[in-house]
Amino acid sequence: MCFLTIQSRTSETTFCKWIYFTKYLDCYYDPNEHKYYITPQSVEAAIQEEIQRIKKSPEASDSESFRSHAEPVKHPRSSTSAADERRIQDLEREIQNLEIANQVKDQFINLMKNERTGIIEKLQAVSRTVGQLETKLHQLDGSKL
Predict the structure, then answer these.
(1) d(CA 38, CA 71)
(2) Residues in CB range of 59: below 8 A, 6 or more apart
(3) pLDDT of res. 145
(4) Could you tell me the pLDDT band of residue 3, with boundaries at 50, 70 and 90?
(5) For the CA atoms of 144, 131, 129, 118, what is the dihedral angle to 10 degrees?
(6) Measured between alpha carbons, how far is 50 from 42 in angstroms, rounded to an integer?
(7) Is the residue at 41 inside a domain?
(8) 82-99: burial string, b at 16+ Cβ within 10 Å, e else
């Protein structure tokens, strides 16, 4: 690990934080292995920069505290025109209408399922009764012969 060549209290964690926050290293993210591959030249350049920084400010004894907290990102609020506001309102209204339509559709589907279940149960009962009546009819026809 080449970060150990720096004669300071720089640890692996500090170096990783420095890599993440500075974004100076040339790297490639491999999505299959979930790893970053860093070019050795950019690592050497980063080490040289860190050595120069340490030489310039010897009072920086603890390199772990270079970022104490994350600063919130402030996005400038863009001025939206009246047409944009109307478009936003129309889209919100359309979303609301679609949500209502989906709820009505789901309720209708549930109603159809319940009716279908009731009809199937009645059909089975009637079919059973028809079967019993046919059996009795065959018994009566058989006794006449």
Answers:
(1) 27
(2) none
(3) 53
(4) very low
(5) -170
(6) 12
(7) yes
(8) eeeeeeeeeeeeeeeeee
How many domains does the structure of the chain reveal?
2
Asked whether residue 80 is domain-assigned, the answer is no
pLDDT in tens, 73-94: 565 555 668 888 899 999 999 9
Do the strands 27-30 and 35-38 form a parallel or antiparallel pair, or are they unpaired? antiparallel
What are the residues whose beta carbons fall under 8 Å from the beta carbon of 24, sequence distance 6 or more? Answer: 42, 45, 46, 49
Residue keyed to tokens 């129309």: 90
Query: What pLDDT score does 16 carry?
Result: 63
Q: Tens of pLDDT along 102-132? A: 999 999 999 999 999 999 999 999 999 999 9
Its domain, for residue 49, covers: 2-65
Predicted TM-score of the model (pTM): 0.34
- Helical packing angle, 40-56 and 12-22, nearest 10°: 100
Amino acid code (one letter) for 9: R
Q: Which pLDDT does position 142 carry in this prediction?
A: 78
Burial of 14 from C-beta contacts in 10 A (0-12 / 13-18 / 19+) = buried
The verdict on residue 134 lying in a domain is: yes
